[in-house]
Write a structure and sequence with these properties.
- This is Phage tail protein I.
- The protein is an alpha+beta fold.
- The protein folds into two domains: about 70 residues, no CATH class; about 130 residues, no CATH class.
- The chain has six helices and seven strands; from the N terminus they run αααααββββαβββ.
- It has a three-stranded mixed sheet with strand order 1-2-5.
- The chain is elongated and about 95 Å long.
- It starts with 14 loop residues before the first helix and ends in a 5-residue tail after the last strand.
- The relative contact order is 0.10.
- The mean pLDDT is about 80.
């Protein structure tokens, strides 16, 4: 039986009876498989599908492709990570990076649970200066956009563009991503200072590849 309405009497059945019959038919006129698929679901169903799969990192201004990929990774059906649901990686560096990928940020360095210097059998790991113990410390790279129309000399900027502050939303989103990526009752700190001034100790070549008083990328938290 494909449509239960075929069993209804022709003369005494109305729209209500036919609606009930459609609801109990074997072949429903609703493409459930397509709606529940993150890659084929209509755009208007994406927020509902995200809630269905308990997606906990979501921004309405994301592209539809990014929203679909987040849902797919939460559901464990991603074509990029086919056998690794993102929720199962919480508390791990791989999970943190997966979440940060959705907000265009990268982990440059990570020190997990550093301990203070201890006399005794062993000292495990390394402890960055002024960092709290038993806390995961992240060095994260995020690119910020300078205001359009800003004339800049050195660190100072001029013109009307200088009056508009740099949009810090990428930093807030990176913090949100790391908060989602951690497990409960754990602590983390984050720094976005992924560049530092060049010093003489860096021993940079004098070939024009680096500017005087320029900047270079940091490789670690130390």
């Amino acid at each position: 039986m494909s449509y239960a309405g075929d069993l209804l009497p022709r003369d005494s059945s109305g729209p209500f009876e036919h609606a009930i019959a459609a609801g109990v038919s074997d072949d429903l006129p609703i493409p459930y498989a397509a709606v529940l698929n993150a890659y084929t679901s209509p755009v208007r169903f994406l927020p509902w599908l995200a809630a269905h799969h308990s997606v906990d990192l979501w921004f309405d201004d994301w592209s539809d492709d990014r929203k679909r990929e987040m849902i797919a990774q939460a559901a464990g059906v991603s074509t990029v990570y086919p056998a690794s649901p993102i929720g199962e990686l919480k508390g791990m560096r791989a999970g943190a990076q997966r979440y940060l990928d959705f907000v265009d940020a990268d982990i440059v360095d990570l020190v997990s649970h550093p301990a203070r210097f201890t006399f005794g059998r062993a000292v495990l790991g390394r402890t960055p200066i002024n960092h709290l113990p038993f806390t995961a410390h992240y060095l994260v790279r995020v690119t910020l956009e300078a205001p359009v129309g800003r004339f800049q000399v050195g660190r100072s900027s001029f013109g009307r563009g200088a009056l508009r502050p740099v949009d810090l939303e990428p930093l807030r989103r990176a913090k949100r991503a790391l908060s989602v990526a951690k497990v409960p009752d754990t602590q983390y700190s984050i720094t976005f200072a992924w560049r530092r001034p060049i010093t003489i100790q860096d021993g940079i070549p004098i070939d024009g590849s680096h500017a005087v008083a320029g900047w270079m990328d940091r490789k670690c938290l130390d």
